[in-house]
Each structure stands twice: as C-alpha cells, then as structure tokens.
Amino acid sequence: MRQSQLLMTTMRDVPSEAEALSHQWMLRGGYIRQTAAGIYSYLPLGWRVLRKIEAIIRQEMDAAGGQELLMPAVQPAELWKESGRYDVYGAELIRLHDRHDREFVLGPTHEEVITSIVRQEISSYRKLPLNLYQIQSKYRDERRPRFGLLRGREFLMKDAYSFDRDWEGLDASYRNMYDTYERIFSRCGLAFRAVEADAGAIGGQGETHEFMALADIGEDTVVSCSDCRYAANLERAESVAPGEPASMRDSVKTGGSSAMERILTPDVKSIQELTDFLQVGAEQLMKTLIYRVDGELVAVLVRGDREANETKVKSYLGAEAAEMASAEEVKQATGAPVGFAGPVGLRLKILVDHEVAAMAEGISGANQEDTHLKGVRPGLEFPLEYVGDFRNVAEGEPCPRCGAPLQFHRGIELGHVFKLGTKYSDAMNGKYLDADGREKPLIMGCYGIGVSRVMAAIAEQRISDGRLVWPMSVAPFRVHIIPVAVKDETQMELAEHIYRELSGAGLEPLLDDRDERAGVKFKDADLAGAPLRIIVGRGAASGEVEWMGEDGIKISLRAGEAVQRSLEEAGLQLK
C-alpha cells in the first residue's frame, strides 16, 4: 500500500474525551472515528487489524470443529420472553417496534436465536455434538460508554454455542473452547489470564471463566495467587472462612462477655467517622447494608473494613438482580436513616459474612438515629441462619487454594466461556431424541470474544515510549518503508525496489511516498504501528538503509539484508 493513497488522517493532539491510551492512539492514528457515544466507524487501518483478528479466530474455531453461520441482529422479542430474559436483561437491552407494532430487540447476544434454530434443525443424538459460531455486531445500551472500544454500545463479537447430549459432552466442549481461546489470545500477542468468573445475565449451570488482558485501564480486578494457579475475577474470588461461628464457642455458650451497651453517636454515619469517634479499628465493626434483591429487602453483614459483594449475594440467593436499597427503603426497614442500620431486632433476612459470624462481639448500628450498639454477639443478639461468603477479598489475604498471599491486577475482559447446561433448552423446549427414542434436553455451552475489544486491548498493551507496535500477527502493515526525501531519485528507487520485493513475498509493506518532512513521517509511523521499519536515507547511494525492529533499535544494513531480516521476522521467504 502506498501511503499517499491510504485514508489515514492523523491527529497531533490527544482528544479530550479519550481517557484510555488505546482510545487516544486509535483516534490520533485514524483507526476509528466516533459516530455517536459508544458507536464507532472503523477506518482502513482499524479495519485491517480487525480482519486479522477475525482471521485468527476463524482459523482456530474451524480447527476446533466450529461451524460458522450468521444470525440476524434484529431479534423477535418473543424469543427473549420465551427464555425469561426479556425483563431480566434490564435497560441495556435495546427494544424497538416495526410498522405493525411487532416488538424486536437489537441482539446483545444470541442464545435465544441459536436455541430456536437448533431446536428446529436437530432432532437426533446422531447430529450431536455441534458447535456453531458467528462474528457479528452486538448492541447494548450502556449507561456510560467509555474508554473507546472497551465499553461501547455497538461492538464486534464472536459468539459460539455448543450443543451436547450430556454433561460429559459439555465438559469436553468447554475444555475444547477454553484451550482454543488460549491459542487465539496467544496468537494475538496478548498478555492475558484465564480467571474464574460469574455468569451474569447470560446465566448457566456450571463453571465459567473470563479471559482477561492485563492492563492498568481495565475495569475488572483480577485476583491471583502469588504461588499457585488460582485466579478469579474480584466478584467471584473466594475468601477463606476464619473458622466456626463465634456462637459455637465455649465462651459464648456460657454467656460470652458483657451485655450490649447503647452508645450515642450523633451525626456519625460512616465507618471512618465511627472508628474515629469510638477510637476502635474498623475490623471491630459490623456493617449492615440493605439491598433490594429481586424486589425483596435483604440485610447483608460484613466487617467494617470489608466491602460487600453483590454478585455473591445474588449467587447465594439464586437471584437475578441486586442493588442497594434507597434511603427511604432503608428507613422503612430499620426505622433509622442510612448509617445506623444494625442486625439486632431487624425483621429482614440477614446474610452474615463468615468473618462477622466468627466475631465474639462487635459494634453495629442500633436501628435508631445517632445510636450504635456495643457488645453485639453473633448468634445471640441476631440469628446465624444464613452464613456465607458475602464480601470482596482483600489484597494480601490468603489464597483459598494454597494459603499464599493474593495479588491484585487490573484487567480487560477479552472473552468469556460458560456452561449453560439446560437453562435455555428447558425454557425454550430445545430437545433431541436419544438412542432409545427418549426426549432429552440439549446441553448447551456458550463462548464469546469481544473482537473490537481485543483490538483495543492489544493497543493498550503495545503502546510504549511514544510508539504503538502491533504484533506481527495483527499489524495493519508489517513493515513501514520510509524514504526520507521522495524527491531524491536514488532514495525512491531503492525504496520502490524494497517495496516490490516485500510485496511479492506477502509481507504487506506500507510505502510512505508522501512529500512530507521526515519528522512528520516518523510521527505518523509511530501511529501506524508497523512492527518493522526500513528507513531509506543518505545511505541509499551505497545501497544501505536503517532497519528497526519491535524493540526500536536502529541498525545499518544493506538493502538486501534488510529485506531478508524483515522476512525472517515475519516467518516468510522470498518467492
């Protein structure tokens, strides 16, 4: 490609709305342009990267036994109502009506459509197992689109669905896709980690893993062990139970310590204010949080120095939605304003984190304004009917598998694999006949990759020292040939010769044939991101050029040597 013909309009200044490095560089480099909030057009550079990521995905999915198809982005709302997700999915589901007032949705995912297709096309066990996938735009009405392609309202996604006869078959399909994802992300040049995760709105009946690209801008927290292979998303990471509840100990059985004491705490609402007022550590406090879970108010108790985990609360209760109760709901449930809720005498279901259950006694709200209780004993002053893990783990606490300290990293979710089981086949009557002619539900799995998000994550990891360097496997152009002065016939003749040789070998070179200053060319080359660069300057008269690899180090080579070295870096040969 000749750069004079390439649509690559670069920006010198960082756009004010771009927070993430990948967003800044892809706008500056002319990879993408915003059409609306969270909605982008992909210009030629960006589209070339996306097509190469897609090619890797297709190669690996086909090799793993997947079959590609294409489903509609516009889906009948009836399918979502049939699966039970129409009301559950929430405000992110974009709903619309046609001229006949029939209701449709813009697909954020395709479990309903694929189940509808397979229940029509597959009736016998002889057609199973089956793995179907597509690469298509998806739509979610994000409340706050941000970070460019990392959180948008329209995005490109690969979604795959497996159908098996039994759970053993699903286990094999799941492992096949897990291994396939590791190959895909490795080939894309990403530093990533597979972590245990929560199924979220997709749902399911088995294990689920997210594949995370490690990056400071990531919105997810990756919890990993400093010694063993344990890793999980923060919302799923397990905390280690400290032991049996305090109410089971001999000291409590025989009456425990002092009786409860009521303490006046005027205008003391937050944990920090309470610790300062009482001169105690936050670990001595019992924090009572009121949630609305599937329409029911529920109390969650965690230690004062911990954060409650809504995902774990939902999972424990088998609920679809959980959110903090409003100030009015808190007052109706407790009789006191926010900041003074406590478990004693509370007429709600009380979920007690196992750290609180293990406390001999602690300090809690008194369900009365400006008042707290001291000497509150779990199991005596309030019930321990619902005890579990309801908090976020903290960095440095012991790994639930081996006891070594846990580490925290930021991560960008690249892909997610789920064991759906019979969630959709039961709801939508997806069945097959086994060898004995008996009807059985299809056992499903689903497997997604955010293709446009992968592009952003690669850029996020590959920007350093004022230069974007794409991995060879996805680079829009693998080598950038830059003649310093296009009016110098010797330089242009040598640059054209190198360009022809590399083009013939399939290296996809970009020749900067523009009549621009050298500084402009080099700045644009930093944005174009080719992993290799050949600079044709004054040494052209003697057949010498400067060659630069991914490390940014320039070396002088004969033109033929530069061509050969470029081919070797790309794993190619002259034809």
TrEMBL record:
<dbReference type="GO" id="GO:0002161">
    <property type="term" value="F:aminoacyl-tRNA deacylase activity"/>
</dbReference>
<keyword id="KW-0436">Ligase</keyword>
<dbReference type="InterPro" id="IPR036754">
    <property type="entry name" value="YbaK/aa-tRNA-synt-asso_dom_sf"/>
</dbReference>
<comment type="subunit">
    <text>Homodimer.</text>
</comment>
<dbReference type="InterPro" id="IPR033730">
    <property type="entry name" value="ProRS_core_prok"/>
</dbReference>
<keyword id="KW-0547">Nucleotide-binding</keyword>
<keyword id="KW-0067">ATP-binding</keyword>
<dbReference type="GO" id="GO:0140096">
    <property type="term" value="F:catalytic activity, acting on a protein"/>
</dbReference>
<dbReference type="InterPro" id="IPR036621">
    <property type="entry name" value="Anticodon-bd_dom_sf"/>
</dbReference>
<dbReference type="InterPro" id="IPR006195">
    <property type="entry name" value="aa-tRNA-synth_II"/>
</dbReference>
<dbReference type="GO" id="GO:0016740">
    <property type="term" value="F:transferase activity"/>
</dbReference>
<dbReference type="GO" id="GO:0005524">
    <property type="term" value="F:ATP binding"/>
</dbReference>
<dbReference type="Pfam" id="PF04073">
    <property type="entry name" value="tRNA_edit"/>
</dbReference>
<dbReference type="Pfam" id="PF00587">
    <property type="entry name" value="tRNA-synt_2b"/>
</dbReference>
<dbReference type="InterPro" id="IPR002316">
    <property type="entry name" value="Pro-tRNA-ligase_IIa"/>
</dbReference>
<dbReference type="InterPro" id="IPR044140">
    <property type="entry name" value="ProRS_anticodon_short"/>
</dbReference>
<protein>
    <recommendedName>
        <fullName>Proline--tRNA ligase</fullName>
        <ecNumber>6.1.1.15</ecNumber>
    </recommendedName>
</protein>
<keyword id="KW-0030">Aminoacyl-tRNA synthetase</keyword>
<dbReference type="InterPro" id="IPR004154">
    <property type="entry name" value="Anticodon-bd"/>
</dbReference>
<keyword id="KW-0648">Protein biosynthesis</keyword>
<dbReference type="GO" id="GO:0004827">
    <property type="term" value="F:proline-tRNA ligase activity"/>
</dbReference>
<dbReference type="InterPro" id="IPR007214">
    <property type="entry name" value="YbaK/aa-tRNA-synth-assoc-dom"/>
</dbReference>
<feature type="domain" description="Aminoacyl-transfer RNA synthetases class-II family profile">
    <location>
        <begin position="38"/>
        <end position="471"/>
    </location>
</feature>
<dbReference type="Pfam" id="PF03129">
    <property type="entry name" value="HGTP_anticodon"/>
</dbReference>
<dbReference type="InterPro" id="IPR004500">
    <property type="entry name" value="Pro-tRNA-synth_IIa_bac-type"/>
</dbReference>
<comment type="similarity">
    <text>Belongs to the class-II aminoacyl-tRNA synthetase family. ProS type 1 subfamily.</text>
</comment>
<dbReference type="InterPro" id="IPR045864">
    <property type="entry name" value="aa-tRNA-synth_II/BPL/LPL"/>
</dbReference>
<dbReference type="InterPro" id="IPR050062">
    <property type="entry name" value="Pro-tRNA_synthetase"/>
</dbReference>
<dbReference type="InterPro" id="IPR023717">
    <property type="entry name" value="Pro-tRNA-Synthase_IIa_type1"/>
</dbReference>
<keyword id="KW-0963">Cytoplasm</keyword>
<dbReference type="GO" id="GO:0006433">
    <property type="term" value="P:prolyl-tRNA aminoacylation"/>
</dbReference>
<dbReference type="GO" id="GO:0005829">
    <property type="term" value="C:cytosol"/>
</dbReference>
<comment type="function">
    <text>Catalyzes the attachment of proline to tRNA(Pro) in a two-step reaction: proline is first activated by ATP to form Pro-AMP and then transferred to the acceptor end of tRNA(Pro). As ProRS can inadvertently accommodate and process non-cognate amino acids such as alanine and cysteine, to avoid such errors it has two additional distinct editing activities against alanine. One activity is designated as 'pretransfer' editing and involves the tRNA(Pro)-independent hydrolysis of activated Ala-AMP.</text>
</comment>
<dbReference type="InterPro" id="IPR002314">
    <property type="entry name" value="aa-tRNA-synt_IIb"/>
</dbReference>
